[in-house]
Amino acid sequence: MNGTTTAATLAAVREATAVLTGVVERFAETDFTRPSLLPGWTRGHVVTHLARNADALVNLLTWARTGIEHAAYPSRADRDADIADGASRLGQIQREDLIAACDRFMVEATRLGHEDWAARVQHPSGDPIVAARIPQMRLFEVWTHLVDLDADVGFDAVPNGHLDLVLDRALLPHLNRTDGHPLRLTVSLPDGSERSWELAIAPDGGSEVSGPAAAALTWLTGRGKPADLVGPIPDLGPWG
């Protein structure tokens, strides 16, 4: 995680959560039923997903702290049903649910000791991860779905101190791909620095893509191909 400490990542989660709850607290009742940027999902679906994701990560944090297995979700079907059911509730209930779930995540995270963060748990995908990855996972979820709420918050709102963590998480599904030709991605950060990666995701050889961090995040998360990205840009499926 670029040397970022768990405490620093949790501080970033707290900051991002404050932005999220501030946006949702301004929603009128009818705002929850408006379309989000995710096909087939209203804003209520996104808000409920963020609440249930927080609870899923609480399960993993509890697993790390106690050593007793707590799966993130009982099943994918249960997860999807919870989101669909939750999105049908009154907006005020969805808002209170989100705030409570975010609070539960932060409370449980503060209960973990140094050794707990090294414990291995199981990601919902089935892959093993160390618990220290969980705060970064939550940070990515909060910022990505804040954008999906279509409430005038884009990836350009991600603070400089959060960008490396969010970029690293967005890149994760693409780092070990071998199904394409090499593509060099160069991202410009707001402080004037750059980061670059070699990704085997190009349909043709000799590709290079470059642009600002916000545009790169939009593309890497499958949310479109911004005009300020330069180069032959492959299609990437949505995730997160």
UniProtKB/TrEMBL annotation:
Cited Pfam families: MDMPI_N (PF11716)
Domain Mycothiol-dependent maleylpyruvate isomerase metal-binding: 13-149
GO MF terms, alphabetically ordered: isomerase activity
Alphabetized InterPro entries for the sequence: DinB/YfiT-like, Maleyloyr_isom, MDMPI_metal-binding, SCP2_sterol-bd_dom_sf
Gene3D superfamilies with a match to the protein in the record: dinb family like domain
UniProt keyword terms in alphabetical order: Isomerase
Taxonomic superkingdom: Bacteria
Biological source species: Actinokineospora xionganensis
Protein name per the record: Maleylpyruvate isomerase family mycothiol-dependent enzyme
